[in-house]
Write a sequence for this structure.
């Protein structure tokens, strides 16, 4: 806690208790005036505020927090100053919040824990209050301190929110990477590629599979693509839709698609669900699909060799 | 890299403007970091909607805005015109699109291409279609 | 308006669509192909879309029309080299270019058609 601030609080309370008329006047000090005062302090003492912030920040978080603050803190202070000088009484913290969001997200990626990123934002309050303590009318200091605390608290909550989003992003990125690793497409023969699917096929996975398969067809100039669903436990209408989309897309590219690995129970379920795969070439096993694919390529190659 | 909230307007008066809209949207999508598949979806949706505005809306404008939702970044496209409006919104959004006769607006397909889709239209009050695509890092 | 270049290779006409095809260019191409097929008796028309970054509902409609018209005039139309991203987008739009042949490369297209045996012949 900053000693200067608590002294301000005490003296102001004493004052208002002692003189009722003056009390109402003090409470009516307009917010815009306070903010203007803060903006002035920020403008005149920016370097000191930044220094104080960087010093505090360096002790709260590790991994280059001080350097990051040094680099990005000035922009935050500038944006804060602009926000505080805002016209028509509106305090628009959105630009400051955005800057702090980006900053917090970067710190999260550097490995900061949530209390550290929040701590970095709260450290700003200490820095601002320290500079406020030594300036302006003593009567205004309490209101200024309160306003500063309120503003920084709002920003700190915002930064915690972005910490959570930042974390979520990291998790989803890692999830996406895992997704790609778990859906490999293999070139099994000259001009034949195969995607053996294992596990449940949700929308995200289906999208990755489709993109990988199509890219493989393009890279390997595949005439036939095999989508093997032996390892897919449930095939419902949604999964079937994904399969149909993939088949349609491979056809547009000029390749044929065989769906293999349909278990007898799966076939029955699909018929019962009214899933129509009549336009799709299917085989019960991957081996059968491969045999068909090889025959197809052979026939094509024969024709192209003929003079 | 433009800041969130930044926006620009592309007029959609002639068929050349449809091409211009595609180019501008692609350039911004690339700048924002969308991958190739996402770029193609966004530009194709742009082509569909811009053409609608030009052909059925009597010309209008496209407003491209970089949007943010927390740390997420996205591209928002608003196609608006002061044309005759769409009489039956439900019908316009039904599948089974065919371009000869019929509404031929391709809206239901375009909706599937993008992350967000809003359609506002009243006969005699013009049409506004707003779509958004969020950047997903892979 | 940019015109789509069309070259003749033996009894085939090859049209190479550019990165970004204007509506007008596509319509002009459709006209020109119909006239050239009728005039030269070409039996194959290859629409090379390998450079096309966007194929939307309009272009897709024009392609289907080109295929129908040329078939009436005695030529088989094949769409060649569609990019993965474009294929994905068309499928999402629900446009599957029904009835239009497709091939990965010009070579494949010609191989498939030369014998008159279609790519569907092998499907069981």
């Amino acid at each position: 806690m900053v000693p200067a601030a608590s002294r301000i609080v005490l003296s102001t309370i004493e004052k208002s208790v002692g003189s009722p008329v003056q009390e109402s006047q003090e409470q009516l000090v307009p917010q815009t005036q306070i903010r203007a005062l803060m903006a002035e302090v920020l403008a005149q003492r920016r370097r000191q505020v930044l220094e104080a912030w960087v010093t505090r920040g360096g002790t709260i978080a590790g991994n280059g927090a001080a350097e990051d603050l040094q680099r990005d803190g000035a922009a935050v202070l500038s944006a804060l100053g602009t926000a505080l000088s805002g016209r028509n009484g509106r305090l628009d913290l959105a630009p400051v919040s955005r800057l702090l969001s980006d900053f917090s997200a970067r710190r999260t990626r550097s490995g900061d824990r949530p209390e550290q990123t929040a701590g970095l934002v709260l450290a700003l309050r200490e820095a601002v209050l320290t500079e406020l303590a030594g300036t302006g009318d003593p009567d205004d200091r309490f209101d200024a301190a309160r306003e500063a605390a309120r503003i920084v608290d709002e920003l700190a909550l915002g930064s915690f929110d972005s910490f959570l989003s930042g974390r979520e992003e990291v998790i989803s990125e890692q999830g996406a990477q895992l997704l790609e690793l778990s859906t490999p497409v293999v070139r099994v023969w000259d001009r034949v590629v195969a995607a053996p699917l294992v596990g449940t096929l949700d929308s995200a996975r289906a999208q990755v599979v489709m993109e990988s398969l199509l890219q493989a067809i393009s890279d390997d100039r595949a005439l036939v693509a095999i989508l093997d669903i032996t390892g897919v436990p449930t095939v419902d209408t949604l999964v079937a839709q994904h399969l149909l989309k993939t088949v349609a897309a491979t056809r547009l590219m000029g390749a044929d698609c065989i769906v293999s690995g349909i278990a007898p129970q799966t076939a029955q379920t699909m018929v019962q669900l009214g899933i129509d795969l009549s336009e799709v070439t299917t085989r019960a096993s991957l081996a059968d699909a491969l045999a068909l694919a090889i025959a197809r390529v052979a026939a094509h190659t024969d024709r192209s060799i003929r003079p | 890299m433009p800041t969130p909230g930044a926006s620009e307007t592309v007029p959609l008066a002639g068929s050349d403007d449809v091409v211009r809209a595609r180019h501008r949207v692609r350039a911004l999508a690339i700048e924002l970091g969308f991958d190739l598949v996402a770029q193609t979806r966004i530009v194709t949706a742009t082509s569909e909607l811009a053409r609608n505005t030009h052909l059925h809306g009597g010309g209008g404008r496209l407003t491209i805005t970089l949007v943010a939702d927390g740390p997420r970044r996205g591209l928002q496209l608003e196609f608006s015109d002061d044309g005759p409006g769409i009489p039956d919104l439900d019908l316009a959004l039904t599948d089974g699109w065919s371009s000869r006769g019929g509404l031929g607006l391709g809206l239901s397909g375009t909706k599937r291409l993008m992350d967000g889709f809003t359609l506002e239209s009243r006969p005699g009050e013009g049409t506004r279609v707003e779509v958004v695509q969020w950047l997903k890092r892979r | 308006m940019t015109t789509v270049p069309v070259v003749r290779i033996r009894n085939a006409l090859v049209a190479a669509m550019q990165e970004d095809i204007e509506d007008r260019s596509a319509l002009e191409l459709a006209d020109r192909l119909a006239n050239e097929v009728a005039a030269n008796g070409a039996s194959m028309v290859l629409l090379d879309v390998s450079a096309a970054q966007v194929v939307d509902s309009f272009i897709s409609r024009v392609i289907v029309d080109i295929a129908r018209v040329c078939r009436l005039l005695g030529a088989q139309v094949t769409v060649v080299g569609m990019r993965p991203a474009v294929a994905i987008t068309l499928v999402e739009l629900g446009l599957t270019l029904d009835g239009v042949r497709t091939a990965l490369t010009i070579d494949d297209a010609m191989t498939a058609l030369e014998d008159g045996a279609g790519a569907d012949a092998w499907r069981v």
Chain A has twelve helices and five strands.
